[in-house]
Inverse folding.
């Protein structure tokens, strides 16, 4: 996957051999499994990366089968990882984590698209609505995926990695819709929804929650707490677009 994207790839069976083989230049990205790793081992590896030349810009991406669970995400974040991905990640997840456009998107040789504000033929009609959506999730790969889908619709996207950050954003720039994860460190999605509904500028605006497959109790609680709809991870672009169009009353 990485070699196909033009990266030079090296793999190691353990952290010690990886650190021993490191040169003076830090890698662009490090993918490491959290399945059997000890927190101090992870921290030592990350510190070695950060100390290398260019290491501050390296992406440290943890892999875990239970990547969406709060305990796993908190362990990775506290150790210094940039993000947590499923094991193995899909190719689009891999590319998004490295800041590359998904394969499903337009390629570099694609014909230039007319600007949505010109109302040119072939653009999404919803693009002319100039709607704004606030996307809140502590996993940057989820935010990136949703942002890509919404941007394709001509929607302006605001991002927040936690409830506290999102609260400050919508107080100063009220969005037309809130899309939020439910389980986040600090202020969770339930508390964020309560504040969103309690703010006069956003009290009537739609909320869509993002949750894992099979998390029915939280979804029911979210809908009873003021959410208008939900999206189940891993989400499909067509499902996201359909629900956003419907609740924003886009053509």
């Amino acid at each position: 996957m990485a070699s196909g994207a033009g990266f030079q790839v090296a793999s190691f069976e353990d952290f010690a051999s990886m650190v021993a083989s490191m040169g003076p230049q830090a890698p662009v990205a490090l993918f490491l499994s959290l399945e059997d790793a000890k927190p101090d081992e992870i921290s030592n590896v990350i510190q070695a990366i950060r100390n290398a030349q260019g290491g501050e810009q390296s992406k440290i991406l943890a892999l875990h089968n239970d990547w969406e669970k709060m305990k796993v995400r908190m362990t990775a974040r506290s150790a210094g990882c940039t993000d947590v991905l499923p094991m193995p990640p899909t190719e689009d997840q891999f590319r998004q984590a490295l800041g590359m456009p998904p394969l499903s998107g337009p390629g570099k040789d694609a014909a230039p698209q007319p600007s949505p504000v010109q109302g040119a033929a072939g653009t999404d009609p919803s693009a002319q609505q100039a709607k704004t959506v606030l996307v809140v999730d502590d996993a940057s790969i989820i935010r990136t995926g949703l942002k890509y889908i919404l941007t394709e619709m001509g929607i302006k996207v605001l991002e927040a990695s936690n409830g506290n950050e999102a609260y400050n954003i919508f107080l100063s720039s009220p969005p037309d819709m809130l899309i939020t994860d439910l389980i986040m460190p600090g202020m969770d999605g339930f508390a964020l929804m309560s504040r969103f509904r309690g703010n006069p500028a956003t009290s009537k605006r739609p909320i869509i929650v993002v949750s894992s497959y099979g998390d029915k109790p939280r979804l029911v609680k979210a809908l009873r707490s003021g959410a208008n709809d939900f999206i189940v991870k891993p989400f499909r672009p067509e499902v996201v677009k359909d629900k956003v169009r419907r609740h924003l009353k886009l053509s």
